[in-house]
Recover the amino acids of this structure.
């Protein structure tokens, strides 16, 4: 197993139960958890981003959970650098690195690396694009790169902006930068699957629990410190609207749950054809994850 790869990946849509499975796997194999969630990386929003509870963080060592300032701009290039360093660190300590999260781009960067020749983010250009409404960005992308327009998650401003940024900086379509997306080895991880109605029920419950456990106060305190990347955390803007008196608490709950369901659907679409991960229901996840780890051990 390459030092750049974890021993196992545990992915799944939001609210599918990744944290519980990851903790059980880590406890069983002497593992440490490395986050692969674009928003759990940030400090200051542990409730809204559904970070593991303090007692869970104490029970098992975690990395890339709540480690970055809310004003920092993070992208897949930086994530890949720090995640690979964490994987090596855990391996060198004689522990099992377990990558856990639902951000498809981050997980794929670990599996396949990044396309050669992609330019680094341009701060001024990105700020200019971030100031524009999403429909305008989508229209520009369609004009500059019709292929990417059909491939990029058009509801995710970060993905649309990055594709536009590459087109503008290089004069080439974003889709012309080829990624290695083939996987001809045995699966290196699992992708949790749940019945759609069950997943929606879990999302509704978690949304209510977030509000009950203090997400509104958390956002109130964090808002002055929010940077452009952290500003895209699901639920942040509906709670901001509630704090400003532009919506009721009931409307806020509905908006967060709807956005979360939509995100979960995009996550499932992203990973449906990912052969490096095997789709499993939660009740089979622990055994399969441990068997993947065991398959990497040298013969006795």
């Amino acid at each position: 197993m390459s030092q750049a790869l974890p021993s196992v990946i545990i992915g799944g849509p939001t609210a599918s139960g990744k944290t519980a499975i990851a903790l059980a796997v880590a406890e069983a194999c002497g593992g440490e958890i490395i986050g692969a969630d674009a928003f759990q990386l940030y400090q200051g929003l542990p409730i809204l981003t559904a970070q593991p509870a303090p007692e869970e963080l104490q029970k098992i060592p975690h990395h890339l959970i709540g480690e970055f300032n809310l004003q920092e701009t993070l992208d897949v290039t930086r994530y890949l650098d720090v995640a690979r360093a964490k994987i090596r660190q855990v391996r060198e300590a004689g522990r099992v690195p377990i990558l856990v999260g639902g951000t498809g781009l981050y997980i794929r960067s670990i599996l396949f690396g990044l396309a050669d020749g992609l330019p680094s983010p341009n701060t001024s250009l990105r700020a200019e694009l971030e100031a524009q409404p999403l429909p305008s960005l989508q229209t520009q992308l369609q004009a500059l790169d019709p292929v990417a327009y059909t491939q990029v998650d058009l509801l995710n401003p970060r993905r649309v902006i990055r594709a536009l940024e590459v087109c503008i900086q290089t004069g080439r379509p974003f889709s012309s930068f080829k990624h290695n997306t083939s996987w001809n080895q045995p699966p290196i991880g699992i992708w949790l699957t749940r019945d759609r109605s069950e997943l929606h029920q879990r999302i509704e419950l978690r949304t209510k629990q977030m509000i009950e456990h203090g997400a509104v106060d958390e956002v109130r305190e964090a808002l002055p410190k929010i940077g452009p990347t952290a500003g895209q955390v699901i639920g942040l803007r509906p709670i901001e609207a509630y704090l400003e008196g532009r919506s009721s608490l009931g409307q806020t709950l509905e908006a967060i749950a709807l956005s979360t369901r939509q995100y979960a659907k995009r996550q499932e679409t992203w990973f449906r054809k990912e052969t490096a991960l095997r789709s499993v229901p939660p009740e089979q996840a622990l055994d399969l994850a441990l068997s993947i780890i065991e398959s990497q051990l040298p013969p006795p």
